[in-house]
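Hi there,

I know you've been waiting on this one. I reran it after we fixed the sequence typo, so this is the corrected version. Both the input and the resulting structure follow.
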Amino acid sequence: MMNPESIHTDTADTTNAGNAAARAPIRRPTANFMLAHPAHLLALGFGSGLSRWLPGTVGTLFGWLLFHALSVRWPELMTPAVWGGVIVVGFVVGVWACERTGRALGVPDHGAMVWDEIVAIWLVMVVVTPASFKAQLAAFVVFRLFDMIKPPPIRQFEQRFKGGFGVMGDDIIAAFFTLLALALWRFW
């Protein structure tokens, strides 16, 4: 395991690396930071959150592709019930991973933390599939819109609940809003 104090970041003040409060927030985590702890690896979406361009969208795309790959490779194993369990476990572990990583980054809901988007897009995809590529793409786009715009009550949830639970929870609400919007669109 790497020593967290030796991890290079774009803005880390390493003069007091042992005290996160005394350290400047990390603007852009590095691969070394990600690999320094399993929580960082998970919270940063196995590297998808390190993207310099729209990390939340890249993380969501990674989650969608992972959902598709696992569902196609092992359809008899990755049933909706199994996905439901994976999503619940992913949420619980994500609360821990995002809490720990947010503290290490000095920002409770850092943009590079994308595990919340990954778990939320799994929830959306498990409900909308089987569906055409176009339908899945629409679900992806609607989810990203809800996640970025954060209409009420998503924004209020995000402001009220801090730490890992807040990070994970607001994306689950965005997933539910996505599913509601798609259902209304479909039955309209």
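Quick highlight: The chain has one domain: 39-187.

Best,
R. S.
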